## 1
Amino acid sequence: MTAADDAWMARTFALARRGEGRTRPNPPVGAVVVDAAGRPAAEAWHRGVGRPHAEAAALAAAGDRARGGTLFVSLEPCSTWGRTPPCTERILAAGVRRVVYGVRDPNPDHDGRGLRRLRRAGVAVERGGDAAEATALVGPFGRWVRTGRPWLTLKLGATLDGRIADRTGRSRWITGPEARRRVQALRRSADAILVGAETARRDDPRLGPRPALGRRPWRVVVDSRGRLPPSLRLLCDGRAGETIVAVTAACPAAVRRRLAAGGARVWVCRARGGQVSLPDLARRLGRLGLLHVLCEGGGRMAASLLRAGWVDAVAWFAAPRLIGGDGTPALAAPGWPLRGAPRLRFTRVERLGADLLIHATPAGQRACSA
């Protein structure tokens, strides 16, 4: 691998990011074709289910310039028929001499199969680029294809003393404009945005990215007993059909009928401790083909997700403020003893204006049982 190879691979990752939030239930993928003289011939990314995969689109755009050249792709090319033909056959027909990929297919049924097909046909195959970035790109797809549940990112915007609102419930704005722009980018990368009923009632959010840039994530509200007011924008903004209200059998039938009449999808989930079973909800969202769920609140929901083991990543936006006292804590629920407290592993820290974005993953956490 050369410095030029690394640069081309970095480009495939950037292209793949353009497809995040659009490709479900497929992973986001980017591809670049470089001709035999080392010049860029074409590039593409997967734009949505049923549309050409990134490799096929890039090769089609490159035409004869692909012959004898190199295909850089963020994910191992597919080798099986699905909604589209196998990319391996398209690669061989194009006469590509070399393929550089970022990560193997996380689907156990396909892992390495495309690479073996290409090697048997005489194509040079290498792994390249930033392995961590390549793996992160397909993390949600890998979680879904192996467990049947979506990847969940828990987003929290809090003060340094861990408060997400003051004693009056006000939370706008704890963090600054740079952090808020990053939240919108997170929303665009997700297939669904999840909140608890308390957050839905208090903030009356639309839960859509701004600007949307073509993304339409599902809105999911956990409302175990069916107490959402019908005037919420989630239920009457013309997009109620993209809203899922997760309830238990304790929700009155009349409330369920009213929600359904307004266009919302009402899921009666199993109950656990009188609340919606989060493992059951995870399984149902996975069946819908959702790869990545972003949870935006509130404090009780965050604690419940951690207890259920359904947190794959934490995005903590830390503002240089202190509220103290009766402010709303980021985890508004009975705590853990120190020895049993959830442990996180910091993976990256970014400065966003005056704020910090701390990326973390749970350390040694069991998977959410669906």
## 2
Amino acid sequence: MDDKKLVYMANQIGKAFAYQDDPTAVSSIAGHIRSFWDPRMRKSIFAHEESGGEGLEPRVLAAIRTLRTA
């Protein structure tokens, strides 16, 4: 799956949690990605984040960084 599609999908997840405060939303986004994305997708989005994370919304970027350090 290409980076543009993953970024789009990750940002859509972020929008689903827009009503939550920042810490809760970041945790919810990370939990969703951890639970529902396969390892290849996570590996790709981590690589995208490492290269600057272009296009990722701030909360989504924070969630991905949280997952990488977990």
## 3
Amino acid sequence: MGWLVGRWVEFPVAALGRLVYLVLAPCLLFTVVAKADLGVLFSEPLLVSTAAACVCFALYPLIIRGRDKGTRIVGALAGGYTNANYIGLPIATYVLHDAALVVPIVILQVLVITPVALTMLEIVTVGRASVRSVLATPLQNPLIAAVILGALVAVTGVRLPTVVADPIATVGEAAVPVVLLVFGLSLHGQRLLAPGSDRVATIAAVVMKTAVMPAVAFGLASALRLPNHATYAVTVLAGLPTAQNVFLYAQRFSAGLVLIRDAIFLSTLACVPALLLIAYLFTRS
């Protein structure tokens, strides 16, 4: 729909992206984290998911050299940052039959990975490298501030008045469709893997996300001797495509925009055969 709209109407894509970044996504993250059980952060499946993501984050910059630091950070995120919200929730619900399985990954990504990634992007693009700026940058980011506030509500058990909680939740519900529309708008007038784009870096990120990450997750889960259903779950969740959130981060800091746009699109297509293959292999075992 976003792509079709982009063909006939001229929309300020950057302005819509900032609306999501500053208002819609923070409301969504606050609502999700405030209702979450933070105790799920201390579990073996989450340890496997974290380790698999870290392996991809570490391998990508070693494989892809000669690019600017911002592009390498965005590429690393493309290879290991899972679309746990927009695609993970329906997959967890209809394939794994338990939507709660994806919640620990959402919390990990927004509480740990996102602050680290945004701080690194801030440093390499803006040039702030002092200890004070490193500590202050995450707190100045609306996404991280929303997660911290949501975590405080979850830990303390505070119940917000309906007059406050309902508007926040309603605004947050707009984040998913608007993010997807912005992504579709960004595709208009662009050619996938166009000449001059960083094809090798993009393909490497897609392979890392849809093949390497689930393989690493399966290997780690097997080494820890997790139950078969838990091993299946972490492998499936590791094979999810790159999150659209990374596109927002890239847009915010003008780093690796073409790479992440193509990586999100291609990994979303590639995850279908990847997940079917995972399901087939598990039914054969």
## 4
Amino acid sequence: MSVAIHTIAFYPGSFDPLTNGHLNIIQRALRVFDQVVVAMAQNVNKRAMFTLEERQALVRECFADEPRVSVVIFDGLMVDAARLHGATAVLRGLRGVADFETEFQMATMNNVLAPALETVFMMTEKSHFFVSSHLVREVASLGGDISPLVPEPVNRALRLRMARK
């Protein structure tokens, strides 16, 4: 007799803003996991362009037709939030070798804190290697076209935000 296991990936990040690289990781993760929980927290080391609630709404809009994606806000330890949402794995995207050292260090710490929670790394597709939320914010703030780098709801929100400044 086999037991069906419902696999949930917990994808934490600041997503300020969500980029096409993030979108790509989530879409591909849905081929591996039954559900993806996009989880955002305030990064105290970064100055946010969008509030947590605005980011949550943007990610929800981008996945409005995908019931297997949920979007949550958390504070405190990521592993505690992942366990609270029934996650079987923490999903992390890698753009290149530079990301690996930091991600490996975090994964190792998370393994100490929650040994049953696996970390799964997914490489961003090569067309997104150079894209980061920081660069998107910078290009947008200087009036550049970021439409090839972000989903349309994010592009719209960024244009509106820049028009107000």
